[in-house]
Amino acid sequence: MIELIPAIDIIEGKCVRLSQGDYNCKKIYNEDPLEVAKMFEGSGLKRLHMVDLDGAKAHHIVNYKILDRVASHTALTIDFGGGLKSDEDLKIAFDSGAKMVTGGSIAVKNPDIFVRWLDQYGEDCIILGADVKEKKIAINGWLEDSGCDLFTFVSDYQKKGIKKVITTDIARDGMLQGPSVELYQEMLQRLPGIYLIASGGVSCTDDIECLNKAGVQGVIFGKAFFEGRITLTDLQRFTR
User: Which of 112, 111, 87, 228 is nearest to 101 (CA)?
Assistant: First the structure.
């Protein structure tokens, strides 16, 4: 069964969602991320994907106190991303309770640092963020097109030991129009051995079922829950 990973995106300490990564298209859903995290935990979920959108924009970790609060008051296994650019950022994230971290921009701009993290912490703790627009990697909170081809990028990191990859199709993110199933199928076919976590576009439980049938190992969802299209009851059905 596909792994369900709810997402909490943080700006100024609040739960928000963007549309297609646009900071000008921000909607606040809850003032208290811990309250939301406890809802997910109460539904039987074990994982949480937390994104520091302030950090992504500032190029360093910002909302680590929110991470610490959620990690201290739930048993959720949290992977944390957004603005992790240095060894100090990484240390703060792990010290604040993250069990895994996701690196995207750093993997493009400073591959030596990212590979060192992978060697130091291992494939279970370091996730490659491969966020794409038209199969090209986008970085810095999706504000910049790196020009890197998705498949070459992920394949090169597989050779260096990466196993887990989160891929967000930016064109679908926050649009509630369904995930890029064909893209993920192509990734699974061309990149054997990856643990693929799909992100972006999930609008209902049927989308999750579709990804599951396609062989995708994990799915991140956020807006569909906050908009009431996926309910706590739906989540409990998946986790039983």
Answer: 87
> DSSP assignment of 167-185, as one string?
EEBTTTTTS-S---HHHHH
The candidate with the shortest Cα–Cα distance to 156, out of 111, 125, 113, is 111
Longest CA–CA separation in the chain, Å = 44
pLDDT of residue 25: 79
Cite the active site residues.
9, 131
In eight-state DSSP terms, residue 118 is H
Contacts of residue 213, defined as CB under 8 A and 6 or more positions apart, other chains included, come to none
- pLDDT of amino acid 141: 52
Nearest to 140 by CA among 149, 151, 131: 131
User: What pLDDT does residue 145 have?
Assistant: 60
Neighbours of 237 (CB within 10 A): 12
Hey, what's the torsion of the CAs at 210, 215, 217, 221, to 10 degrees?
-20
CA distance 67 to 52: 9
Distance CA 80, CA 210 (A): 26
* 7-20: pLDDT as tens digits: 999 999 999 988 77
Q: How far apart are CA 92 and CA 64, in angstroms?
A: 7
pLDDT in tens, 201-228: 999 999 999 999 999 999 999 999 999 9
| Distance of alpha carbon 52 from alpha carbon 136, whole angstroms | 22
Residue 182 makes CB contacts below 8 A (sequence gap 6+) with none
